[in-house]
Structures are given as structure tokens and as C-alpha cells.
Structure to design on (458 residues):
């Protein structure tokens, strides 16, 4: 999709009578006064005028600069960027009704960029969400159209190639964040995967092919989510949910519902997150392995913890642990191999943090950090940040800042808006101790890391 010029930003800059170079300089000066190194240049300003997205921290500085120049308050939303203070219109759920519809929807999504950060508000109408979930629950599976006439014949070798590619991109996602591989993955999906779904294949191959395509589509959703493109991620997830219905893959469809729950919880919608996690659990009963059920229960626990339901969260955590004890009693698909002891601990430490159960939060977060494979860089970064937040809750300021510093050092290559939010949330939490030398040094470290990311973006 071609970008539209940011007419709001252009208009405000014209009103303020400021050039691209002038705005870039004012922004860098304003950031420096706050102890922040900002790598903004006139080239970056032009890109923003052309419609490219902007980081929330940078948008806030720009808004402050233009406010001072104009003598009135200007918000990021007035500049054509996201605005956390204004309500977001309800987004259509986008659940395709037919197989041609879902393939067309996915082809369209694969042409969209995920480099424009969206607001952390994504409001989905309850009725639309319920309709999509109900359709997934009760609609008959479409089934595979086997051995139809086509110019190309697909075999299991093609399916294995797609799954190998999905595995490779998943490892890149864990190690470098969603921003690293999303563009290449969507190109691969559109040009190498989607065309095969319209080729000729046996029922066995077709079933495996649709499953592999769903894995790639789900990963596209996850990488878009990780870089902050929430609307795009949500549309990928709902389309992937529909794709799983073609072959009636209940376990994978429930995984998609779990991801929708994860996103809703992240965006501050715990009620929707609870409903989605429970739909995953109910929809997968008798059709999923114990490891998968542990994952779905962990999603419900996360949502209930965010909602402050200590009793409900405790029951969901217990269910997750009970299922996980039997994780090795069944063969799991390759896409579930990442969900190990460390991942479960990581989910649980988030729960205890949100429930303000300091001792349990520190204990589980430390165990998650100790047991996470270093190749899972983003997961390790999340767990370290949760450990830092938990230590802060426990009154251990210096230990918390030290842990957060390790997280920033280890995650400095991550192209992940989610990881950046963990860091900035922690900065807000320690702002009451802004004069403490350890906090001052940490804030400088974060500013330098963000400046490096800005330099790379330009």
C-alpha cells in the first residue's frame, strides 16, 4: 500500500513557519535539555511528512517543540500521529466468511507495511468479537479441494520447505524482534506460500499445506504485534483463525485465540482477553496436547491477573501447571516447541507482578531469567524487566535498576516496540527516585539505546 502524506503535520509546520532542518534542530535541542540523545535529521522530518510512522517518545518531543513555537498546546494526534488521549473508533473484526475471502484478505494484508506504529488503543466491538469466535466454534470445516486441475502440483517437500522457513523466521523473531524479519516474511508468504494454496495436491498434502500456511500467517501477525502495528496484527490473527477452520485444526485455532487474548491484555482490555483465552480452552478441549492446554490456561491467568482477580488467576495458574506436568505425554507440533519450563515461568511471573504478589513475582521472574535459553533474546529481556519491576515492588531499588540495565544491554538489538514499552514503563515506575545516581545512569543508558535505534531507522 502506498503511504499518504501526513497533511496534519505539514499544516502545523506551515503554521509554525518551521523548516525540516529547523524542526529537527529544535527537537534535538529539546531532547538534549531532558538528557536524551535524539538522532533526528531533516531527512527524518521529511519521511514523517511523507507518512512514515514515528516512535511515541519522538512524537511527544515534536509536539512539545511545536507547542512552544505556536504558543498553544499541540498533541501527537494533532500532528497526524497516534493520540492516546482520544478514543479510537471500533475496528471491524474482519473474519472472512469463505475460503476465497480469507485468501484474498491475506494477500491484501501481505502487501501492507508494519513500520507505522499505531496507537496502543484498538477497540473491537464485543458483538463482532463474539460473532467471529462463535463462527470458529460452530461452523463446519471447509475441507480440502483435492486433486483439482492446476498448473502446479504440490508435494510434502513443498510443505517441509514452508515449515523450515517458518522455523527460521521464528528464531529471528525471538532473537532480533518482530521488526527484523517481518518485511521479508510477508514477501515470502505472498509470493511463495499463498500461490501454492491454489495449486493441485492430495488431501493429505493439502491439509499439511494449509497448516503450514497458517503457521506463517500467525507469525506475520506476531511480528506486526511486536513492532506495534496492532490493527494489522489483529487482522492477520482473525484471518489466520479463519484459515485454521478450513482443515478444522482446533489446536492451532485455539493458539490464535490465545494470541488475540495476549494482544487484548497488552492493550489494556482484560475482559476481552479473558473471553478469548476461555474460548481457546473450550474450543480445544479433547483436541489439543497438554502443553498446548497449559499455554491457553496461562493466557487466561495473565488476563485475570491484569483484571485483579486473584482467586481466578490462582486457579488458572494451577490449571496451567497441572497440564504442563503432562507436557511430555503427547507429541507436540513443531510450532509449540518454544513453550518450555522457562516460557511458563515467564507467563507466571507476569501474573504475580500484576497481582502485586512481590515475593512470588521475584521468585518466579528470577527462575524464568535463570532458565531462559539466551537465544530467546526478547523473552529473556521481558523476564529481566519483570524481575526488575518485581524487585522494585519489593523495595529493592538498586537491584531493580541493575536488573533493568542488564535487560537493556541484552536487548539493544531488538526491533521490538513491546520491549521498549517494558523499559519505558519501568522508567515511569522509578521516576519517583529520579535523582538517585543509579536511576540517572539508567535513564542515560536508555536514552543512548533509543538514539541508536533512531539512527538505524534513518
Amino acid at each position: 500500500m502506498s503511504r499518504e502524506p501526513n497533511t496534519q503535520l505539514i499544516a502545523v509546520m506551515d503554521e509554525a513557519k518551521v523548516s525540516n532542518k529547523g524542526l529537527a534542530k529544535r527537537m534535538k535541542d529539546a531532547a538534549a535539555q531532558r538528557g536524551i540523545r535524539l538522532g533526528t535529521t531533516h531527512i527524518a522530518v521529511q519521511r514523517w511528512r511523507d507518512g512514515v510512522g514515528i516512535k511515541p517518545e519522538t512524537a511527544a518531543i515534536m509536539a512539545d517543540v511545536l507547542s512552544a513555537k505556536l504558543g498553544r498546546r499541540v498533541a501527537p494526534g494533532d500532528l497526524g500521529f497516534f493520540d492516546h488521549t482520544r478514543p479510537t473508533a471500533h475496528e471491524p473484526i474482519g473474519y472472512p466468511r469463505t475460503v476465497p475471502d480469507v485468501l484474498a484478505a491475506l494477500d491484501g494484508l501481505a502487501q501492507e507495511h508494519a513500520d507505522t506504529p499505531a496507537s496502543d488503543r484498538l477497540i473491537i466491538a464485543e458483538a463482532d468479537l463474539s460473532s467471529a469466535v462463535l463462527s470458529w466454534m460452530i461452523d463446519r470445516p471447509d475441507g480440502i479441494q483435492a486433486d483439482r486441475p492446476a498448473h502446479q502440483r504440490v508435494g510434502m517437500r513443498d510443505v517441509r520447505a514452508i515449515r523450515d522457513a517458518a522455523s527460521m523466521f521464528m528464531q529471528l523473531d525471538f532473537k532480533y524482534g518482530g521488526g527484523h524479519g517481518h518485511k521479508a516474511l510477508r514477501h515470502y508468504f505472498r509470493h511463495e506460500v499463498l500461490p501454492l494454496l491454489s495449486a493441485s495436491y492430495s488431501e493429505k498434502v493439502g491439509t499439511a499445506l494449509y497448516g503450514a500456511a497458517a503457521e506463517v500467517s500467525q507469525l506475520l501477525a506476531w511480528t506486526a504485534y511486536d513492532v506495534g502495528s496492532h490493527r494489522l496484527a489483529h487482522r492477520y490473527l482473525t484471518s489466520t483463525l479463519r484459515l485454521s477452520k478450513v482443515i478444522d485444526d482446533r489446536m492451532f485455532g485455539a493458539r490464535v485465540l490465545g494470541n488475540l487474548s495476549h494482544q487484548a491484555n497488552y492493550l489494556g482490555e482484560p475482559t476481552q482477553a479473558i473471553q478469548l483465552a476461555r474460548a481457546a480452552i473450550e474450543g480445544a478441549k479433547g483436541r489439543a496436547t497438554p502443553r498446548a492446554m497449559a499455554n491457553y490456561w496461562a493466557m487466561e491467568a495473565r488476563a485475570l491477573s491484569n483484571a485483579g482477580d486473584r482467586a481466578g488467576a490462582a486457579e488458572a495458574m494451577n490449571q496451567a501447571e497441572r497440564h504442563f506436568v503432562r507436557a511430555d505425554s503427547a507429541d507436540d507440533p513443531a510450532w509449540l516447541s518454544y513453550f518450555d519450563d522457562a516460557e511458563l515461568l515467564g507467563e507466571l511471573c507476569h501474573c504475580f507482578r500484576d497481582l502485586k504478589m512481590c515475593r512470588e513475582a521475584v521468585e518466579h521472574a528470577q527462575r524464568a531469567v535463570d532458565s531462559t535459553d539466551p537465544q530467546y533474546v526478547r523473552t529473556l529481556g521481558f523476564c529481566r524487566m519483570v524481575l526488575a519491576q518485581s524487585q522494585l515492588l519489593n523495595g529493592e531499588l538498586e537491584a531493580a535498576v541493575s536488573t533493568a540495565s542488564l535487560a537493556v544491554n541484552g536487548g539493544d538489538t531488538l526491533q521490538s516496540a513491546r520491549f521498549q514499552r517494558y523499559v519505558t514503563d519501568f522508567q515511569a515506575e522509578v521516576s519517583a527516585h529520579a535523582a538517585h545516581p543509579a536511576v540517572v545512569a539508567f535513564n542515560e543508558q536508555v536514552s543512548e539505546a533509543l538514539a541508536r535505534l533512531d539512527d538505524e531507522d534513518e
